[in-house]
User: Fold this.
Amino acid sequence: MDENIKSYTFSVNNKQYTLELPADMPLLWVLRDYLKLTGTKYGCGIGECGSCMVLISNRAVFSCQVSAQHIDGQSITTIEGISDENLHPVQQAWLDEGVVQCGYCQSGQVISAVSLYNQSTPVRDEDIDRTMSKVLCRCGTYPRMKIALAQLLTKQRRDNHE
Amino acid sequence: MSRREFIKLSGASSAFLVIGLKLPEVMSATDSSIDPVLKSNIWIKIDKHNFCTVTLPESELGQGIYTGLATLVAEELDIDWQKIKIERATSLSIYGYQSTGGSNSIRKRWFMFREMAAITRQVFIQAAAKIWGVPEINCYTRNATVHDASSDKQLRYADLITQANLQTLPEKVELKSTDSFNLIGKNIQRIDALNKVNGEAVFGADVQIPDMLIATTIHAPVFGSTIGKINTEEALKLSGVVKVIKIQDAVAVIAKNTWSAFQAAKLVDIQWQLKSNGLDSDTIKRDMQLALKEEGITVVETGKDDISSGVEKISVEYSAPFQAHATMEPMCCCAHIHDGVCEVWAPTQSPSKAKSVAKAFYYNLSDQLLNKVKSLLKLQAVEDVIVHTTYSGGGFGRRLQQDFVAEAVQIAINVSRPVKLIWSREEDIQHDFYRTTAMAKLQASLNSDGYPVSISHRIVSPSLRESLRPGSLASRNGIDGSAVGGAVNIPYDVKHHKVTYKEYRTSIPLGHWRSVGSSINAFHIEAFIDELAALKNIDAFKYRQSLLANSPRLLNTLNQVAELSQWKRDAHGYYGIACHSSFGSHVSQVAKLVNDNGKLKIEHIYCVIDCGLSVNPDVVKSQLEGSIIYALSSLKSEITILNGRVKQSNFHDYSLLRFNRAPLISCRIVDSSQDPGGVGEPGVPPAIPAVLNAVFAATGNRIRDLPVKPSVLVV
Assistant:
């Protein structure tokens, strides 16, 4: 047995897992190859494209940059876990605005947008730019995401005030 | 083949309709478990729940073609959109040659799909009329139901299937007139939208086959190099690694998971046979500059070269670098050889090419040899290689090449298990089929009013055609149609126009890249026209207006974009304009730049397209937005060659435009009832020159060589 392989316990989308994993294996491949949660995508492996974004304690992180040894005890949410029966408001905003094209980066985009939506402090334009600029989209859906997010966050603020 | 024969032929093969994962069942031709279907054609099925499944022969790359084609069927079939389901056609020969590119899918299928649906609808009317004993003229259809106008009788399509299959196909059907469309022209939500926001859409990289292994391939970093000895000892020590093998032009590492494969790939010690091929970007540029001094082969010459009638002459040179496609989903493909069949799952633009490539390796023949085999037709008739086309994480022309399919099949043969091949991003960037580099010299002579009487366009570039099919350029008199695409038919009214081409030979692999030749030539022409206008201080919009009398559709978009952008009305804005016709559509764009804390940035792009009739205007607009962003990325990205290999390797150095740099984009579609033009590409060509012309307006400096320095413009 490879001594690099250890047992890790963590939750993904509120489900507990205990898996024997190489310590340095990125979470991305744990999700895709072990748990068959293929909504989280590989795009670069170096934390440049953001197709692999997941939420760890509501922080959007590059799952290609988090290794197995650092997920022990963590609670992870992937694109498959952000909504149950109903769509998450971000997903609905994406549909309403007709955002998606090829769709490959969209898990990362939606996850990033969800982290903004869940942000406890008011979301400033700089927050949107900083968070959303971590995820590349080759199809060029940026203008529509910008509109979808602006409308969604405005509605959220209004709802919170009511 | 006549239309009627085609329909009969298609109909005759409808027994193949249901295609599962287990091929032997498909080969047995009939499957009694399937719902009754109307066998009028292979593209449209009605099930017992009165739902319609449309079989789609084009690849969904993000351009919305699944939605577009399904809309055509729903419209002519008279069926509510909620009752439409889709499935991607496999590579079975009955579906014909399948290749998605050239902004051609709607244009190619516009009549065919509507006609298929209209015939199906007519057959249901015939069936109902027969059952009721009323004339067909009394019957009309609404939401997948035939009604008798003279009574309250009605029958769902689903209830008419048996009778419908006994009907003779109508000789002629009338298609709906454009003013009676209910769905075409409406902003129907994309059929793939939901699965793409919830992570359920299955891309090539997401395919799961039981007992599947994961592979990744390593290619010679230096172009033209071959694989020598390989030492696999260190790689095989890694946990999860199964095998390391040589395949054609690559070394494949096969493992139980992707991470192990990627890690092991770094540990394989490969002795490449060639350390350098002498290629580098600086040398290429120098050589091309020399080549540009000589006149190339004349591609087109209209009018008489009457330089003497001009009073002023101007000559300018431009250059553009190599570009990568950088689809967000790196190259990947699954293959499984079982029960005497070779099954492939690929995010491909050309399932038909994928099939022939897979077949060549499955039969252990080279592609060229296969083409010569006398029994080719017989081979093709045997459906023992089948390609399932998945969603593609971007295409842009990259997936017209099937190198990844060839690799996956070779690996699957070797391991005798299902295998999923995934390239690392580094391999994807370094082993693309690149958009070519090019140089051009444009010369004009102007009349005393400052308008051109002669324009000559000298193009020097490597040849895409020659790269994809070595030796093929000679049979075309040395002229590469792709290299001069967008340059040959300029829209401007000029007495004398000449285009020449000179190939510059390199071994760097080239491919089709969104809008192909127009991505370069529109930049040259539109930047040059701007230079001509500026010589006499004529407004760039009005200058073009005066020259576009013979191109009314393009002129109309130009006029409209000037109005949409409020051309030069904002004193704080720097405006640039450009127009270009390509892929059957006409596009004009205005770029508005602003000074942002001392740096020039792109604030707004305005775009007007005349693409004939829009099947889905919202999708058309999203394609324009996407095309513009795609083009703007190439203001700053470039692929450079250093010591015979590509210098860039990932998104840190092949830098693309991000969210925070995306300008506002306003699009307008010209109202038109003409047949549809292309949509996926025509938005690309005008963006670069519009921005560069605006940079001139802001700085007085002409940028003639791409990429643009970040000190000049923030992208």
In short: The first helix of chain B runs from residue 3 to 12. Residues 1-36 of chain B have pLDDT under 50 and may be disordered. DSSP finds 20 helices and 26 strands in chain B. Chain B touches chain A through 67 residues (CB under 8 Å).
